[in-house]
Amino acid sequence: MHPEISQVLYFWFGELENGLPKQPKGKLWFGAGEVIDQEIRTHFGQLHQRAERGELDDWATTSQGRLALIILLDQFSRNLHRGVAQAFANDDKALALCKQGIEQGDDAELSMSEKQFFYMPLQHSESLDDQQLGVQMLTKMMQGLSGQTLKEAEGTLKFQQLHLEIIERFGRFPHRNQVLGRNNSAEEAEYLQEGAPRFGQ
Fold first, then answer.
1. For the CA atoms of 147, 130, 71, 159, what is the dihedral angle to 10 degrees?
2. How far apart are CA 98 and CA 117, in angstroms?
3. How far is CA 156 from CA 33, 48, 171, in A?
4. pLDDT < 70 regions, the chain
5. Which of 11, 109, 144, 199 has the lowest tally of Cβ within 10 angstroms?
6. Nearest by Cα to 118 from 67, 69, 169, 155
7. If DSSP codes are grouped into helix, strand and coil, which group holds residue 24?
8. CA-to-CA distance for 108 and 190, rounded, in angstroms?
9. What single-letter DSSP state applies at residue 56?
10. Contacting residues for 13 by C-beta, under 8 A, at least 6 apart
11. Which DSSP symbol is given to 102?
12. Distance CA 70, CA 72 (A)
């Protein structure tokens, strides 16, 4: 495995046991904070730029490399550009990597936590079809799981279903409207005023 692929995956997951990180990663994965964002900027900012330019596309020839590339483009983009339109600039490329990987069966080789982020571009998509595919893949992922691994997977599926419900209702994520220069509908404005989730953005 390419050393930089290993660096991305170890930073994101650490050591895995029964499909779960041995050390808690919730703050890294789902917390919104400048300390973590700066750490990613310091260690992976240049690598992220190379991924954006297509210089790391050959990583996608392996399941682990494809996963690392998805994390760079889907997750790290949100850390490096939190609160601005660039946070979503690489979503299409990450989504294409995800869907192509599913078609090729790359995801079958991954653990539960790895699959969680392999499928994340589906959760970030504003396409209803992609959202439904995300639910389908996570439901499939849960087969055969038990204990804490199953509990974590159930939480992931619940979050996926929340994203699906938003897309079913609005056809897009209203919390992105401002940074993307989109006007809110009256229903969206009311939804946002009620304290709708922003998912770290």
1. -40
2. 9
3. 21, 25, 21
4. 200-201
5. 144
6. 67
7. coil
8. 41
9. T
10. 21, 25, 113, 114
11. H
12. 5
Q: How many CA atoms lie within 13 A of 183 on its CB side?
A: 2
CB atoms within 10 A of CB 51: 25
Amino acid letter at 66?
Answer: R
Helix, coil or strand: residue 17: strand
- Residue 48, CB-side half-sphere exposure with 13 Å CA sphere: 22
Q: How far apart are CA 134 and CA 167, in angstroms?
A: 13
Residue of 24, 4, 28, 19 whose CA lies nearest to 107: 19
Task: Give the number of residues written for the chain.
Answer: 201
What the block records as the tokens of 139 is 């439901």
- pLDDT by residue (tens digit) across 36-82? 999 999 999 999 999 999 999 999 999 999 999 999 999 999 999 99
E strand map for the chain:
16-17, 20-21
> What sign does the CA torsion over 157, 115, 136, 78 have?
positive
- Write out the two tokens for 7: 């660096």
Q: What is the pLDDT of residue 200?
A: 60
Pick the CATH number of 3-193 from 3.60.20.10, 1.10.10.10, 3.90.226.10, 1.25.40.10: 1.25.40.10
The pLDDT, as a whole number, for residue 198 is 72
Q: Which residue has the tokens 């994340």?
A: 120
* Stated pTM of the model: 0.95
